[in-house]
Amino acid sequence: METVIVVVHVIVAIAIVGLVLLQQGKGADAGASFGAGASQTVFGASGSGNFLVRATTIAAIIFFVTSLSLAMFARNQSGAGSTIGLPVVNQDILEETISAQSDIPALEASEATSNQSDIPALPDNN
């Protein structure tokens, strides 16, 4: 079933590209693409506008539906349900990590605020 939807999806995508390329710009004349009066005889009195717009709309709706269907297939195959995909943390490992972090030496308050440094100060050139 998924293969059929993928094939339909690709065909509709190609059809949308073709239909969009066939459509005229706002200032273009209908006779520019089909010859002098050929557009009137091929697509009726209204010209090619209505036919191409309707065909593009239908193709876009089909493309949207197949996109949603493929997204649902991908979601079901990935096994994503109510889980977000976060790793499961073992409580023992978490406690060991926290206790190991407390063994790290830290600077005392008096050492951290000391102005003494191993870098010599620049001389004043007054």
From TrEMBL:
Task: Give the record's keywords alphabetically.
Answer: Cell membrane, Membrane, Protein transport, Translocation, Transmembrane, Transmembrane helix, Transport
Under InterPro entries, the record lists:
SecG (IPR004692)
Which spans are transmembrane here? 51-74
One GO molecular-function entry: protein-transporting ATPase activity
| One GO CC annotation | plasma membrane
Q: How does this chain sit within the bilayer?
A: Multi-pass membrane protein
* A Pfam family reported for this protein in Swiss-Prot or TrEMBL: SecG
GO biological process terms held by the UniProt record: intracellular protein transmembrane transport; protein secretion; protein transport by the Sec complex
Location (main, coarse):
membrane
Q: Where in the cell is it found?
A: Cell membrane
According to its UniProt entry, the function of this protein is described as:
Involved in protein export. Participates in an early event of protein translocation.
For this protein, the record's NCBIfam families field holds: secG
Q: Provide the family line.
A: Belongs to the SecG family.
Q: What is this protein called?
A: Protein-export membrane protein SecG
Q: From which organism does this entry originate?
A: OM182 bacterium MED-G28
